[in-house]
Design a protein that fits this description.
The complex is a heterotrimer. Chain A is mainly alpha-helical. Helices cover 83% and strands 0% of the residues of chain A. Chain B has one domain: Rossmann fold. Classes of the chains: A mainly alpha, B alpha/beta, C mainly alpha. The structure holds adenosine-5'-triphosphate and magnesium ion (MG).
């Protein structure tokens, strides 16, 4: 490329960047106007919230912790069960959703669309939709979590499968191995590290999500937070929030430990 | 005795590239045949059509009286397990142990179930170990495959192919990713073992001098066609030029 | 041949396989624990499996009630969808601004003081660990209902995550780049603007896109607790047993989140090509 062309390309790129930022700015201004957003509002809002947090939420009511143990455990159980079932189903679906292993392109598109449906409807929405049929409680929460876990993991696993080294797979096939043997001996070893890594990550996400699905009737800590807010029991609310926080951080720590050892 | 017959083999890839334009040759038991030719000539395609990692468009590949091109799944498995293959990129299962990689050579002889669940028996393990010992890796058998050097990995590749007790060995540029010293070692192992065990070998190479050193017969491929088939002594400068004659041009055109 | 003779000799010695080294059985133990914990959890959750079956029947039944979707309220629904989108945009933008400002003093390699870095990181992980919807509940009590609450909640969640990932990106910078500028006697701000920002810009951008994708999902659910947007339409329709209306809302939500995923995939691909 000549110097002139380079300059031209650079100019073009700069223009693109400028246009991008201009578009973002316009988008924000438009959003701000139509949602009635104002900076003074932001300021008073922040002050009010800080006041609320300091004066009403604090100090957390530690005596309340005993009645939170049960919902906290429920949160963990739901997240874990959903992660395990989601991971197994997703591993199966991913075989059909990845370009390298799908038996037919149409199957691939169908499974991808299916998993996208699960993934792109937020877990809370699923819970609302399902609660009418399954009633309130941990059952509906777990089902919603399974659906979203399955959706997200199918996509992740399919991507892992698409990135595996086909040379290794081919070498196993060349020995005269059957389809199942090729999957088990050639594909699986390359697939497992990603499988465990993503499943652990999903567990973290589920823990967060399961605290919120409680708010629409999915059981667990979210349910407690929602009810106590309605009862203006803010110090108990903050205790539940604190417990959520501790739970999330502990889970993050545990999954990190495991991840470091297996990958 | 004839082990392999390739008759009028043609291959056209789905994107329209014609890689093979009707190749004929035979391989007799115990031969060590080196295939040479410029990049893109179709050497890999030819080799991979033999064990049907690539499906030929036309022609026949007869291995021990069975047509590879027309074989069904079960027959194909039986054919493949008698044909060992080693690759330029080694293609070991990187996360599996060296020993397990060699055991993969036995998969074609095992039931689906046993093969899927790593149920290799003690005598299979022992044989695999002996093969590894034979290629000088007796001490490394529990290491992960990707912990070995390139030359060592290729020796594991050879051991894996030998575990199949093959009648024919396919080697697709086995030394292209290796330094000169390791290359020598690998070619020595490959050649000696094939000769001792009476395994016929089809080996793609880029180095004409190496080809001349080992081959009992040399096949020259150019643009999907066989342009030479004879003894190493018959491979003159002229013929080499003919095989590679517009190699330079093609390389530039490909870039 | 040499190889042959040594080989034959070795075979006569009848080789003994080396002893297998102790394998790291951490993975096996972890798996076993996982399996046990799975069944323990199932036991503790004590699902009513009869309800699982009857519920599935009921759900299929509601599904039949859901089609065809009732689009009579489309103006209403689309306005709410637009609001959710705007809430996501503003929340993400403010999150980005906060993340951007706080990440530089929080990165270990360029922080003015380690304590500052530690404080910011701690603050960010606090923001992050509390789910957005809980923030929304807190803000509803403090500020009242409406889109403004949603914006605040999204901002807090986005800031918590972006501070963390921005900081990580900065900390991954090759120290040589910074040192070279330090050697010229450049001050903190010029180091950041000349060396750090150009290096991390692409990484930052892809995190921003990823975050917007997540925030789009978050903002659709905020309505479920009353913080504005399309989530409220869904809750409303379900409570009124207007399943066909609810279905329409669900479809709109799906399309919103899905199209953002599509666009973000596109952008990510392009950035991969450029970067
Ligand atoms: N999967 C494929 N799809 C389409 N075309 C292919 C494919 N594999 C190979 N080809 C084409 O077929 C021709 C022969 O390729 P092949 O790999 O057999 O050559 P080669 O002689 O092994 O070359 P090299 O020495 O570089 O390995 C080339 O033009 C190549 O571009
Ligand atoms: Mg080749």
């Amino acid at each position: 490329m000549s110097e002139k062309q380079l300059l031209q390309v650079r100019k073009q790129k700069r223009l693109q960047v400028f246009l991008f930022f201009a578009a973002m700015l316009a988008l924000s201004v438009w959003s701000a106007i139509s949602t009635g957003f104002s900076f003074s509002g932001l300021f008073t809002g922040t002050v009010d919230s800080t006041k609320f947090i300091i004066f009403d939420l604090f100090p957390p009511d530690f005596s309340y912790i005993a009645s939170l143990v049960e919902p906290a455990l429920e949160t963990i159980y739901m997240s874990f069960v959903a992660m395990v079932i989601g991971a197994i189903v997703a591993a199966f679906l991913a075989i059909f959703a990845s370009a390298t292993t799908a038996p037919h392109p149409i199957v691939q598109v169908a499974v991808r669309a299916f998993s996208s449906l699960f993934r792109n409807i937020p877990v809370l929405i699923w819970t609302i939709l399902l609660a009418a049929a399954y009633g309130l409680g941990t059952l509906v929460g777990t089902i919603a979590l399974i659906m979203v876990s399955t959706g997200a993991l199918t996509r992740a696993f399919a991507e892992i499968l698409e990135e595996i080294d086909m040379g290794q797979v081919e070498a196993v096939r060349a020995t005269g191995a059957s389809y199942g043997q090729v999957l088990a001996q050639g594909v699986l070893p390359q697939f497992l590290p990603g499988f465990f890594g993503w499943s652990l990550y999903m567990l973290e996400i589920n823990i967060r999500a399961s605290t919120i699905i409680g708010m629409v009737g999915g059981g667990g800590l979210g349910f407690v937070i929602q009810t106590q807010i309605k009862l203006f029991q803010y110090e108990q609310v903050s205790m539940a929030v604190l417990l959520t926080l501790v739970l999330v951080l502990i889970m993050e720590w545990i999954t990190n430990q495991i991840r470091e050892r297996i990958i | 005795m004839t082990l392999l017959q390739v008759k009028g083999l043609e291959k056209k890839y789905p994107d329209g590239t014609v890689a093979l334009k009707g190749i004929d040759f035979e391989v007799n038991e115990g031969e060590f045949i080196v295939i040479i030719g410029p990049s893109g000539a179709g050497k890999s395609t030819l080799l991979r059509s033999v064990n049907r990692l690539v499906d030929a468009t036309n022609g026949a590949v007869i291995f021990k009286d069975r047509d590879v091109v027309k074989a069904g799944t079960r027959v194909l498995r039986k054919i493949r397990r008698e044909i060992g293959m080693i690759f330029q990129g080694f293609n070991l299962i990187e996360r599996a142990s060296v020993l397990n990689n060699v055991l993969h050579g036995r998969l074609g002889y095992m039931s689906d179930f046993k093969g899927m669940f790593y149920l290799f028996n003690q005598s299979q393990k022992k044989t695999a170990y002996e093969l590894l010992h034979r290629v000088g890796l007796g001490e490394q058998i529990y290491k992960r495959a990707d912990e070995l050097s390139g030359g060592q990995q290729q020796r594991v590749g050879i051991a894996r192919a030998l575990a199949q007790k093959p009648a024919l060995m396919l080697a697709d540029e086995p030394i292209a990713s290796l330094d000169p010293v390791s290359s020598n070692v690998i070619m020595d192992y490959l050649y000696n073992i094939c000769r001792e065990e009476g395994i016929a070998c089809l080996c793609n190479l880029h180095q004409v001098d190496v080809a001349k050193k080992y081959a009992t017969r040399i096949i020259g491929i150019h643009a999907g066609e066989k342009v030479f088939d004879g003894k190493p002594e018959e491979l003159t400068e002229d013929i080499i030029n003919q095989i590679y004659h517009n190699k330079k041009k093609e390389l530039v055109a490909n870039e | 041949m040499r190889i042959e003779s040594t080989y034959k000799q070795n075979i006569q010695d009848r080789l003994e396989m080396p002893i297998k080294p102790k394998k790291n059985i951490f993975l096996q133990i972890a798996l076993l624990v996982a399996v046990l914990f799975f069944f323990f959890s199932l036991y503790q959750l004590n699902f009513d499996y009869a309800r699982l079956i009857s519920g599935t029947g009921a759900f299929l039944e509601t599904l039949t009630l859901m089609v065809p979707p009732d689009i009579s309220q489309w103006q209403h629904v689309l306005a709410a969808a637009l609001e959710s989108f705007q809430v996501a945009v503003l929340g993400t933008i403010f999150g980005i601004i906060i993340g951007f400002v706080l990440a530089f003093p929080a990165a270990d390699n360029i922080t003015p003081h380690p304590t500052v870095a530690w404080l910011i990181k701690g603050f960010a992980s606090l923001l992050r660990a509390i789910p957005t919807l809980i923030w929304a509940l807190i803000f509803i009590v403090a500020v009242g209902l409406g889109p403004f609450t949603g914006i605040l909640a999204i901002t807090v969640g986005a800031a918590g995550m972006l501070v963390k990932v921005f900081t990580q990106s900065i900390e991954e910078i090759d120290y040589g780049v910074i040192e070279a500028l330090k050697a010229t006697g450049a001050g903190w701000f010029s180091i950041v603007s000349q060396a750090v920002i150009p290096t991390v810009l692409t990484a930052f951008l892809s995190w921003c896109i990823l975050r917007f994708e997540a925030d789009m999902g978050e903002s659709t659910i905020l309505g479920a607790v009353g913080a504005g947007g399309i989530g409220w339409e869904l809750t409303h329709a379900m409570r009124a047993y207007k399943f066909d209306q609810a279905f329409f809302v669900a479809v709109v939500i799906f399309l919103m989140v899905f199209s953002v995923e599509l666009v973000s995939n596109r952008l990510k691909m392009r950035m991969k090509n450029i970067g």
